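RECORD TYPE: inverse folding
INPUT: structure tokens
STRUCTURE:
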């Protein structure tokens, strides 16, 4: 009778160890080794049954491609392949994807529980079903649960899904496809073999896997969600998607640190990695791309959660702008670029005397280390005594602004709060602050200025050396932070 052996697998990198360690010997992550039991066949049996089954599955999947030997070609010998992207029905999602859905691509979407990943994908599937057959694999819900969610989102207005009460395939080949709901197929299944068979049989244009951590490949002995299961399930789904030209959207769980759970190789296997972000106290949601083989990275899409699901926010600058009618001291307006999109954001700063021996520094939406650098520059190069003052900086709406172009706006907001002065609400500040007190140039300056002019701003303080002429806007070039403060806060100085 076959015995079993216990080994430990790292949940981050997939490294195996015969004994438990608090720290992974390969990647150095703490408390990431999970115990797994692997069957061992009798001596002389060769490779394990699980490994043999996996290799047989891979060989069968590649049988068509390896039937004929292929020689290497030069880049000039490879013919052009014009790709027609599929519109998802949401311009914000198409923007993040780089212009639409690429046929045969794998898109991984991660986010906190309850942030709206399943809602967005179900609404997208309904929009796509108006033109193409769509398969929605609900591995964590039953068919009735997905139908209840679709009714809450208003998807069930036209007619009910055919095959109501049957949790299997909702396909009806004898009836005409007169509604998008006739092309939206639900498959409540966790077994990977069944899902692969349905993909090859139905051949949908787009398929949604919700979620990859719930799938189970019977040839492997590990539990669902383990490193081996996630890696192998994604690899086999990728082979079918590339072979059948099916666009796959895969939902991935995230850890408490905010990273996608499972091995890092999961993000390397897919073509696009998207993160769905949002504040649980706010209604807006941010869809951000961190990897995209078919478009720009760090692209941003903005949605708002309403009663009928997610709605697009086509002008996010208005969302992240404060009340310009009643400006307050310590506020400044910047123009941040997320991918190819310029967004006008209001920064707020507050400095006050501290009651502790060590002053507090706090940020919301701004990188903490950049705040420390700006405070040091203001004290050393400008002469503002901030070492005995608490300093707080936040971005309006909770948007995370990580680029250096926000440095000048943060510096002016801190100086305005210290002097209890108000910056002109029709002025934007764009520039990077150097350690010597210089104001350095940033990229995509003309795009930022045009976005600010479109929203009614009449004055822009930018780094010297960048000459632009924007109709209806006064351009004020500065070379140092002192000059920027004098231009933004005219009058007496301290």
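DESIGNED SEQUENCE:
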């Amino acid at each position: 009778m076959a015995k079993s052996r216990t080994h430990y697998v790292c949940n981050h990198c997939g490294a195996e160890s015969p004994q438990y360690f608090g720290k992974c010997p390969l990647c150095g992550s703490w408390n990431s080794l999970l115990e797994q039991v692997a069957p061992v066949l009798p001596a002389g049996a060769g490779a394990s049954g699980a490994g043999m089954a996996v290799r047989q599955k891979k060989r069968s999947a590649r049988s068509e491609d390896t039937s004929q030997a292929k020689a290497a070609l030069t880049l000039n010998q490879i013919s052009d392949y014009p790709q027609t992207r599929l519109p998802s029905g949401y311009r914000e999602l198409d923007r993040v994807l780089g212009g639409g859905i690429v046929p045969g691509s794998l898109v991984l979407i991660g986010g906190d529980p309850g942030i709206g990943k399943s809602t967005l994908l179900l609404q997208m599937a309904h929009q796509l079903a108006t033109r193409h057959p769509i398969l929605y694999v609900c591995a964590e819900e039953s068919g009735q649960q997905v139908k209840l969610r679709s009714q809450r989102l208003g998807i069930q207005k036209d007619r009910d899904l055919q095959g109501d009460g049957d949790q299997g395939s909702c396909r009806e080949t004898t009836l005409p496809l007169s509604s998008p709901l006739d092309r939206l197929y639900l498959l409540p299944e966790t077994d990977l073999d069944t899902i692969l068979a349905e993909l090859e049989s139905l051949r949908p244009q787009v398929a949604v896997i919700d979620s990859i951590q719930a799938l189970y490949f019977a040839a492997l002995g590990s539990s669902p969600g383990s490193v081996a299961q996630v890696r192998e399930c994604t690899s086999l789904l990728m082979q079918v998607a590339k072979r059948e030209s099916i666009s796959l959207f895969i939902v991935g769980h995230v850890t408490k640190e905010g990273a996608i759970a499972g091995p890092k190789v999961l993000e390397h296997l897919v073509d696009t990695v998207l993160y769905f972000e949002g504040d649980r106290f706010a209604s807006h949601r941010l869809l951000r791309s961190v990897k995209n083989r078919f478009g720009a990275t760090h692209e941003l899409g903005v949605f708002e959660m309403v009663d009928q699901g997610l709605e697009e926010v086509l002008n996010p600058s208005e969302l992240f702008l404060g009340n310009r009618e009643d400006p307050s001291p310590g506020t400044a307006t910047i123009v941040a670029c997320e991918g190819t999109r310029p967004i006008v954001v209001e920064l707020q700063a507050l400095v006050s005397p501290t009651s502790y021996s060590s002053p507090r520094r706090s940020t919301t939406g701004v990188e903490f280390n950049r705040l420390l650098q700006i405070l040091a520059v203001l004290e050393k190069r400008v002469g503002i005594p901030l070492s005995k003052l608490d300093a707080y900086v936040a971005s309006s709406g909770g948007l995370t602004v990580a680029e250096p172009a926000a440095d000048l706006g943060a510096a002016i907001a801190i100086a305005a709060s210290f002097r209890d002065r108000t910056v002109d609400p029709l002025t934007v500040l764009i520039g990077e602050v150097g350690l010597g007190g210089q104001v350095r140039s940033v990229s995509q300056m003309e795009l930022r200025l045009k976005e600010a002019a479109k929203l009614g701003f009449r004055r822009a303080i930018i780094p010297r050396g960048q000459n632009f002429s924007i109709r209806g806007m006064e351009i004020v070039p500065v070379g140092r932070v002192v000059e920027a403060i004098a231009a933004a806060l005219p009058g007496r100085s301290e």
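NOTES: The chain has three domains: 1-42, 91-171+179-314, 318-488.
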